[in-house]
Specification:
Layout: H1 2-27, E1 32-35, E2 40-43, H2 46-76, H3 83-95, H4 98-122, H5 129-167, H6 170-176, H7 181-216, H8 224-233, H9 237-263, H10 270-301
Antiparallel strand pairs: 1-2
């Protein structure tokens, strides 16, 4: 009796292992899709499944960003705007970034002038140097260089600050204490970045043209009044207006990207660094894409 019970137990164990093995095979079966043209089922490869997961992740992330932007617009136009926090963010973004922008703008003007002067001298067109430098800085170099610098400084700062608040559960504490974190943390930063970046670009343009005068005087003697007269004589209102408009979009892109990456950071401490790094990379790429679109629109309208 004992031996027969022992054999029965072994057989039941084998049956159970066989059942579990078949079940695992069914779970690990690669999905199939039906080709309605031929009526046959096509087995999807592992690489195809990985690409499908990447596409699903990208589309879900795009949807999350859209909802995030929608929430920003909703909270922007509701009452009880956090004006004190907005002024503090304007100071943090604008005033603390100003020295870096001024130095960068001046160096940019000096280097661009030194590099451009020999090429113009070959054609005897050195008198066109002030106008060429001024148009180049106002239209493209000033806005894009300033936006990329701000993407590195402001975008990383927003991502790291909000990411650390997410990790330490300060954002959850604000929600519990009936404080709207989206309005207090995100909306103020996005609006401040949108409004401060055009002002920083104006400083970069001004000091860039002043730096170009310094660069022109390294190997020559150019009167400052004559130089600035020739520089501004070559400028037109349509050189200045489109460049100023696109800087608002640059600031909005940097603010939204930095806040989104920080606000949606993970719970681990390493997620703060990931949020700051991805905020810089993505905002820099988006600035270049927005600049390309703005240049195409300006070219079509003019």
């Amino acid at each position: 009796m004992g031996f027969g019970f022992y054999i029965l137990t072994i057989r039941l164990g084998f049956y159970r292992l066989f059942f579990l093995q078949n079940k695992m095979k069914k779970l690990n079966t690669v999905p199939k899709i039906k080709n309605y043209a031929t009526g046959q089922s096509i087995r999807l490869s592992e690489k195809t499944m990985e690409k499908r997961e990447e596409v699903n992740t990208f589309l879900s992330g795009l949807g999350d960003v859209s909802l995030f932007i929608k929430q920003i617009f909703k909270e922007t136009f509701t009452r009880r705007f956090e004006f004190k926090e907005f002024l503090r963010q304007c100071y943090e973004i604008g005033n603390k970034s100003l020295p870096l922008i001024i130095v960068t703008g001046a160096i940019m003007g000096i280097v661009f002038t030194i590099q451009s002067r020999p090429s113009l001298a070959k054609f005897g067109a050195e008198t066109m140097l002030p106008g060429m430098v001024a148009v180049s800085i106002i239209r493209e170099i000033g806005p894009i260089i300033t936006a990329l610098i701000c993407a590195g400084k402001i975008g990383s700062g927003m991502g790291a600050e909000l990411g650390s608040m997410k990790v330490t559960e300060q954002i959850d504490a604000m929600e519990v204490s009936a404080t709207n974190p989206m309005k207090y943390l995100v909306v103020t930063r996005v609006i401040a970045a949108t409004l401060m970046l055009p002002i920083l670009v104006l400083f970069a343009d001004a000091f860039g043209i002043a730096g170009s005068w310094i660069g022109a005087n390294i190997k020559g003697d150019v009167n400052i009044v004559l130089y600035f007269y020739q520089a501004f004589a070559a400028l037109d209102w349509m050189d200045f207006f489109p460049a100023l408009i696109k800087t608002f979009f640059f600031g909005a892109v940097i603010g939204v990207t930095g806040c989104y990456k920080g606000y949606t950071a993970g719970r681990g401490t390493e997620s703060v660094g990931i949020a700051a790094n991805s905020a810089v990379v993505i905002s820099s790429l988006l600035v270049i894409i927005v600049d390309m679109i703005a240049v195409q629109i300006t070219d079509m309208l003019l």
